[in-house]
Inverse folding.
């Protein structure tokens, strides 16, 4: 296996997709809120490549606001079929290009509706009077989709591309519990590898 942790990440991501790992496109993103407390949520991996890790976010969401305020995050990925996990920290950038718009248009309509609801009903994670307002908003958008065959692209949805600078790879060993931990840190454009006690 390559000593480049990005190559390993891409390799295992593609294996997870091909092998229909139930967590293939799932990860846990941790950010730090204004009180200095960790905030964690499951997210969908949209793309994992040499360029970085793409997820779709609402720029008005708490996670985006927390990133803007302090720039700190950790992404945790676990693929049970390979019994391997990745902990990732680093930089990030936002993007909203034609490829992204095309990809968004290809999402299932219920997923598009969820994004548009944040602009038409209430911002993500805001307080709402009842779940009924969400259901009614979704019903109106389904009707709009049925009439037009498409929904308007929500301006607040962007690609958040995570740019790894630290990757820890944990490879589990169920037989003897002698797990393998490798820490990679990007220094002057080169990955430096350190082994950690499991």
């Amino acid at each position: 296996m390559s000593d480049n942790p990005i190559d390993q990440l891409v390799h295992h991501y593609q294996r997870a997709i091909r092998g229909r790992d139930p967590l293939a496109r799932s990860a846990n993103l941790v950010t730090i809120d204004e009180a200095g407390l960790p905030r964690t949520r499951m997210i969908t991996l949209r793309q994992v490549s040499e360029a970085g890790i793409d997820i779709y976010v609402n720029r008005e969401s708490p996670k985006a606001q927390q990133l803007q305020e302090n720039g700190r995050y950790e992404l945790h990925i676990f693929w049970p079929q390979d019994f391997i996990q990745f902990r990732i920290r680093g930089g990030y950038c936002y993007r909203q290009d034609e490829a992204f718009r095309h990809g968004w248009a290809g999402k299932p309509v219920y997923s598009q509706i969820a994004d548009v609801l944040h602009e038409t009903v209430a911002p993500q994670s805001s307080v709402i009077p009842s779940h009924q307002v969400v259901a009614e908003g979704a019903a109106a958008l389904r009707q709009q989709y049925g009439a037009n065959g498409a929904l308007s692209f929500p301006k607040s949805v962007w690609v958040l591309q995570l740019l790894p600078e630290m990757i820890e790879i944990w490879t589990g060993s169920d037989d003897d519990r002698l797990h393998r931990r490798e820490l990679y840190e990007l220094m002057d454009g080169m990955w430096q590898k350190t082994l950690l006690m499991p």
About this structure: The first helix runs from residue 5 to 18. DSSP finds five helices and nine strands in the chain. Strands lie at 26-32, 38-44, 47-49, 52-58, 73-79, 84-95, 157-171, 180-187, 190-196.
